[in-house]
Structure formats: C-alpha cells, structure tokens
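Protocol step 4 of 6: structure prediction from sequence.
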Amino acid sequence: MIPAFDAVRAIHKCQGEAMVLPTVTEYRYWKAVSDREDLDITPPDSMGPASSMGLGLALANPDKKILVLDGDGSILMNLGSLVTISGKKPSNLVHFVFQDNEYFTTGGQPIPGVGLVNLAGIAEAAGFRATYEFDDLEEFVDELAHIMEQKGPIFICLKVNHPEELPPSAF
C-alpha cells in the first residue's frame, strides 16, 4: 500500500503547470503541499463529479495538463464518466484514483465491491489510452514522470492507505 500523502507529494513534484482538481480527502493532502492557488481547483462539496469536471476542464483548456485526484468511492458514483472521457479522448487528462476501499471522508464505510472491483481494468475496458495500477510508492515515483509525458486520457489507480492524522482541513 502507498501512503496517500506520499502519493500526493509525488504528484505535486511532477505537477509543472498542470491544473489540479482533487476530491475532498485528496484536497486535504493537496492543500498541505501546494502553493499554486492559480492552478488548484477547489473540489465540489460532493462525491462523484470530479471525473466529469476534469473532462470539462480538459476540453476547455486543451493546451494545459489536467490532473484529477479522485477517490474510489467517488468514481464508483460516476462510472459512466469513464466512457464519456474515453469518447472525447482528451490528450491532456490524467485521472488518479486513490483506492482505499472505503468512504474515508464519511467515516470509513466500505465501498461496494471491495476485493472484486478492478478500477484500472474498468478504465481500460472503457477505452482509456493508458491505464496503470500501483501499490508500491517507489515503483509509482519511478514511473510517474514518464506517465505524465504520455498523451491521455490516462487512468492511474493508486492502492493507498491514510495516516492516522490527516493534514488540517482546508474547508
């Protein structure tokens, strides 16, 4: 398992001039490492729409890389967006999904399909140009710069766990 905060730090190091749209939990980590308010998008106050919002940002800003930091519970609420994203083929979209197998933000309830769902496999079947799955931080860090150079849409599933204490909420 990858510590979620370490994954966010690694993504931040490769951000460059990319716009970043995190979901609620990932936003806490992101705000603790980012000083790029000009590129940070405040997340919606609900689970599910980050993938669709990321697609909209990618289509509206074709010359700018868009990074979506999504949760597994969130993407499960909007799986149809993966097919829509694939159909639009945004070459500038990188969709990270932090898979912790629970609705962490709302108290740790298990997500549907724990142990059964292969989110990277779903994205691949939906037609994403490239999909990845990581459960080792070193391997993820070693591959990340190369992945960020590729044309999207790209889907990256990160098998994560959370520290006992989260960074203070930015809300």
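Step 5 (inspection) to follow. The mean pLDDT is 90.
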